């Protein structure tokens, strides 16, 4: 049976913002990886959630 998770889009705001520096790009990538690992999702799954 599938599992349901709840992710607040406000927790993903850092991923929705355009990056302007290398440091911000690295921070965004680390955030993405942590969220993906925590919820056992792929990075592509996270981006799909952000877009919808």
Number of helices: 3
Specify the helix fraction band.
55-70%
What share of the residues does DSSP label as strand, in percent? under 5%
Q: What composes the largest sheet? A: none
Overall, the morphology is: globular
Distance between the termini: 24 Å
Radius of gyration, whole Å: 12 Å
Please tell me the overall pLDDT.
82
- List the helices and strands in order: HHH
Low-confidence stretches: none
Number of strands: 0
Helix-strand category: mainly alpha
Task: Outline the secondary-structure elements.
Elements: H1 13-16, H2 22-39, H3 43-51
Short description:
This protein has 52 residues and is an all-alpha fold.
How would you characterize this protein structure?
With 52 residues, the chain is mostly helical. The protein has a domain at 26-51. The protein is 60% helix and 0% strand.
Keywords, separated by commas or semicolons:
globular; mainly alpha; 52 residues
């Amino acid at each position: 049976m599938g599992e349901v998770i709840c992710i607040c889009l406000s927790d993903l705001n850092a991923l929705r913002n355009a990056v302007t520096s290398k440091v911000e790009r690295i921070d965004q990538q680390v955030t993405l990886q942590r969220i993906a690992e925590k919820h056992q999702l792929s990075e592509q799954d996270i981006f799909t959630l952000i877009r919808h």
